[in-house]
Specification:
Blueprint (H helix, E strand, L loop, with lengths): L13 H5 L28 H22 L14 H13 L4 H23 L3 H22 L6 H13 L5 H27 L7 H15 L3 H10 L1 H27 L9 H29 L8 H27 L2 H15 L1 H16 L12 H25 L4 H11 L8
Helix pairs in contact: 2-4, 2-13, 2-14, 2-15, 3-11, 3-15, 4-10, 5-6, 5-16, 6-10, 7-10, 7-12, 11-12, 12-13, 13-15
Length: about 425
Amino acid sequence: MKHPETSETSETSGTSERIGRIGSIGPGRPVSAAEPAAVMPRPHRIVEVDALRGFALCGIFLANVLVMAGIEGRGGDGPSASGLDQAAHWLVMMLVQTKFYLLFSFLFGYSTTLQMDSAERDGAPFAPRMLRRLLGLFVLGALHAVLLYPGDILTTYAVLGLVLFAARTVDPARMWRAALRVYGAVAALYLLLGAAVALVDTGGGDEGLSASTAELTAAYRGGPADVVRANMDAWTDILAGLLMMGGMVVAAFLAGFVAGRRRLLTGTGTPDRVARLRRICGWGLAVGLPGGVLMAAGTVGPLGARWEIPMFIVGMLTAPALSGAYACGLLLWFTTPRGARLAARLAPAGRMALTNYLVQSLVMALVFTGYGAALYGRVGAAAVLGGALLFYGCQLLFSARLMERHRLGPVERLLRTVTLWGRPTPRA
């Protein structure tokens, strides 16, 4: 998730210059050269980073809503699912699942370098700020997991962020090699696990799965106490998932930190950067799309249950390639006039991504659990995903309005207060 630190950097790129009013001293009001230096605004945010974060917010929502609706990981679409539901679920598994949390993790690492720069500009030590920030994320994440959505990512970032904190002084070249080694070790373990599962006959487990799904459905359709109890019971599975995905998150943290130190997300319109982005995008699609197809075929169909975990692992290992293709493709698009307009629409949601992420979970809980309509397991994937996209569009509009008037989202302001251990300064 993004961190609500002050403006992320004073660097701007071609895209940032075209939409430089985002993060300026006021909506639509340029800085006058006649204004005294004492009231100059904080440095411009990097619009591309905010826009990528806003884009990742959509992918995270699409992946999470299938879980909250009782579709993903709770027994699948079921025999009553329509062809449209199956197709929608299949596309999300192919293009979305496991791709966007890696993009968020990369941006978390990138933003950490910007927060270090912010602390240096303020003449403040970075370590206390970072540790308070991680503590704040952990508390928010724990409350989020218990009350709203057990698949919370904030606690994971808070715990694994300590690795990034410890490695913050490492040379970027060494850190990049460390990221590759972490990914290599995780890949080797995953491949061994996938091979072992593929060799084991998984038949006969459907009855246990059906009973577990029925219990979970009853809990999420029950009262608030039942929902909280089900969320807490799910923590053992969440911890197992953390162990499984933790290495990938750390690798993405480190890669993002290296990119931040080298400012790889700015100046993307220069010829050498354009050529590099095109290469990464091409290779990412060539590797990531087949992996996504195998993941969808194993988890949604037509492959059998024996191949579900092995194909999911293949999809996880190729997910960084597709995540990179998404990021590079968008960065290339942002250098065009039409792409700059898209970035301007995505960036406000990215600036308050933490607030938007938690609001998404609140709305999902009200719709699908006993907190509200209790539609858990009652709505098909196509309708669920269509509703999620509609709500995300509303978030884009609301975020744009709010960011015209405020520098921080409400939860970002709270976390920033904890990070700086004081009240954030008002918008200039």
